[in-house]
Design brief:
The chain is an all-beta fold and 118 residues long. The chain is built from no helices and 11 strands. The N and C termini lie far apart (40 Å).
Length: 118
């Protein structure tokens, strides 16, 4: 099993920055890709960023140039650096893991609330 725990959410001003962390534990060797999703009220959950075992990253167009995904293997932690935050970035942010064999996103954190407001 894999356990993912997000942290770092909170209230920030428009234009501000926030860094989310996702600590992974358990059978992390079974993870192919780590990613960050978000879900705003009334909207579908969307994939924002991902990073593969080899370190290849991908960002959604909506956050490209503002968000960055990275990881620290020594700490078993994935990060999402969010800059130039906008009110429309307000959502619950989830850390997720894609299984090495099945390719399904079947590992999920509990979510952390990010609110961007003046």
């Amino acid at each position: 099993q894999v356990q993912l725990v997000e942290s770092g959410g909170g209230l920030v001003q428009p234009g501000g920055s926030l860094r989310l962390s996702c600590a992974a534990s358990g059978s992390i060797f079974s993870i192919r890709t780590m990613g960050w999703y978000r879900q705003a009220p009334g909207k579908e959950r969307e994939l924002l960023a991902s990073i593969t075992r080899g370190g290849t990253t991908n960002l959604a167009d909506s956050v490209k140039g503002r968000f960055t995904i990275s990881r620290d293997d020594a700490k078993n932690t994935v990060y999402l650096q969010m800059n130039s935050l906008k009110p429309e970035d307000t959502a619950i942010y989830y850390c997720a893991g894609r299984h090495l064999v099945t390719g399904t996103w079947n590992y999920w954190g509990q979510g952390t609330q990010v609110t961007v407001s003046s």
